[in-house]
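Colleagues,

For the teaching module next term, I've prepared a clean inverse folding example: a structure given as tokens, and then the sequence designed for it. I'd like students to try predicting residues themselves before seeing the answer, so please don't circulate the second half yet.
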């Protein structure tokens, strides 16, 4: 089995992250640093990541977290900010976030130690839909809604058609839900800004059929067997 797949299956990291660890010299095979990305792990090989021996069959864990504002979606932070790792510190397996949410975005974040599933969900070719609830400034006029639905230029990239619904419109602000399947950096914020309605608050409420529902901010729940199967079969 290829080295990055072996590391991903052990639950340490996604395949891409495994390659990074390998290039950076954090991976040893039979006691020697292994930097060859294409290395084929043999049945009797001992593989270590950061000094810890790993095997390709750690118990798989899948959770849905409601990320609060003011947390980064990484497992450690060089600027000492709070991270989502602080919210799942009672889980012994080495889980990591699937994709990311901005520092000030709240809502649904899937975390797992299943590197293969993480890889799959993060890959743009799988077109997994993500739904957000946005509070925005201004009026979401018919023209603005039409632009969002058609696709807007967010600086060198024109977004695919989005599903957008107004939940509430007041004099100065609106609440809308928006579903997109791309994952450009700060995409939803950039889309609303592009039509003149900057985002004030943003919450991810669904990933595909997985719903945030009533999960309290800062807490997590285990995904159900059905939800896990659904994600694997996407
Ligand atoms: N779009 C954004 O602008 N921010 C997020 O956190 C997620 C999607």
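(Answer key — instructors only)
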């Amino acid at each position: 089995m290829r080295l990055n797949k072996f590391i991903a299956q052990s639950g340490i990291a996604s395949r891409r992250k495994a390659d990074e660890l390998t290039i950076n010299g954090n991976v040893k095979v039979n006691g020697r640093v292994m930097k060859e990305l294409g290395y084929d792990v043999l049945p009797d090989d001992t593989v270590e990541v950061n000094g810890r021996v790993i095997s390709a069959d750690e118990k798989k864990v899948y959770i849905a977290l409601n990320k609060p504002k003011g947390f980064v979606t990484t497992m450690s932070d060089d600027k000492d900010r709070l991270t989502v790792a602080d919210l799942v510190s009672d889980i012994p397996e080495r889980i990591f976030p699937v994709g990311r949410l901005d520092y000030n975005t709240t809502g649904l974040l899937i975390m797992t130690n299943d590197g293969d599933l993480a890889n799959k969900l993060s890959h743009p070719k799988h077109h997994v839909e993500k739904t957000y609830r946005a509070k925005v400034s201004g009026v979401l006029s018919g023209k603005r809604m039409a632009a969002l639905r058609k696709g807007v230029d967010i600086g060198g990239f024109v977004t695919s058609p989005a599903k957008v619904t107004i939940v509430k419109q007041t004099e100065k602000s609106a609440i809308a839900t928006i579903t997109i399947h791309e994952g450009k950096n700060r995409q939803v914020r950039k889309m609303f800004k592009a039509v003149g309605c900057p985002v004030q608050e943003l919450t991810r409420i669904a990933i595909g059929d997985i719903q945030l529902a009533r999960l309290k901010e800062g807490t997590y729940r285990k995904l159900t067997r059905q939800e896990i199967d659904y994600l694997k079969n996407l």
